[in-house]
Amino acid sequence: MDKRSVNKARSLYYGFMSKFFVFTSREDRFDGILEALEVMMQNPLDENSLEALKEIKEFIDAGGYTLLAQEYDDIFHNPEKKVVRNTASYYDEGVESGNKRVAVKNFLGKTRIRRNEKEFKENEDSVGFLVTFMHEIIELVMAGDASYDTLQHCLFVEIINEFFDDFVANIYEHPKANAYKSLAVVLNAFLEFERLYFDVAKPALKEKVTLKAVTHKGISTAEAKRRAENKAKKAQGSKK
Q: What is the pTM of this model?
C-alpha cells in the first residue's frame, strides 16, 4: 500500500467522523458533511459503505441537520434512554476516566496539538476527540513531519483499534439510530481499511465491562464496603 497516496482520503474520513462525534452546540457543527459525502461516494471503500453514504445523504436532504443533531442526542446524551458510551476507558475498564485517557493525554503531550476546551467538552479518550486528533496528526504527516508516523500508529493500535468495534456495534444496535446506523456501516469499513494501513489485526473478543459504581471518595462500592467491614472489626477488637 502506498501510504502517502491514501493519507488525504484518511484525513477526509477522520474529519468526516469528527463532525458526527464531537459534542458541541455550535450551529455550524455539521458544515462540510455534504461536501465530504460527495467526495466519499465517488471513491467508496466498498459497496456496503457506498449504500450507507447514500442513506446518510438522503437523511440529511430530507430532515436537515436538526434531525441529525436530535439523533445524536438520543444516542449519546438522552438520560431517559440507554446511551452509547463513547470513551476508550469505559470499554477498557468500565469507568469514564481511566488508563486510556491517561494514555491519550500522554500522546497529546508529545505533539504541538492542544485540546481546545471550549470546543471539546468530553474526555481526551472520547471518540470525538480521538478522530479529530487523528485527523490533525495525518495533516501534520502530509505536511512533511514524519515524526508523527509512529504516533499515529500507536494511537490507532493502542487506543482506537481496541474498542471501536464495540462502539460501532452499540451504535448500530441502538433503537434511535438511523443516520448513525448507516454511519456505523461506513465506520466499520473504514476500520478494516485502517487495519490494513497499519498492518494490525482486529482485536480478540473480550468480556464486556460494566460501569463501575464509584463513591464520592473515588473508590468502588465494593472497596468501600470492604473498608467499612475492616473498620468495624478493628473497632470491635478495641472494645474487647
A: 0.83
